[in-house]
Amino acid sequence: VCTFEVRLMVDASTPLGATGTNITSNITGDAGGVVVTGPQATDTIQIDFLRLSKSFDGPAEAGDTVSLTFTIENLGNDRVDRLSFSDDLDAMMSGLTSVSFPATGVCGDDSDLSGTDIVRLRNASLLPNGSCTFSVDVLVPASTPVGTYTNVTSVLTQDGVTVAGRATATLDIIIVAPVDTDADGVLDVDDECPNTVIPESVPTRHLKNNRYALVDNDFIFDTPRVTNPQYTTTDTRGCSCEQIIDIVGLGNGHTKFGCSGGAMKNWVCDGESTGAIVRSGNGSYSCD
Question: What SS3 state is found at 252?
Answer without folding.
Answer: helix
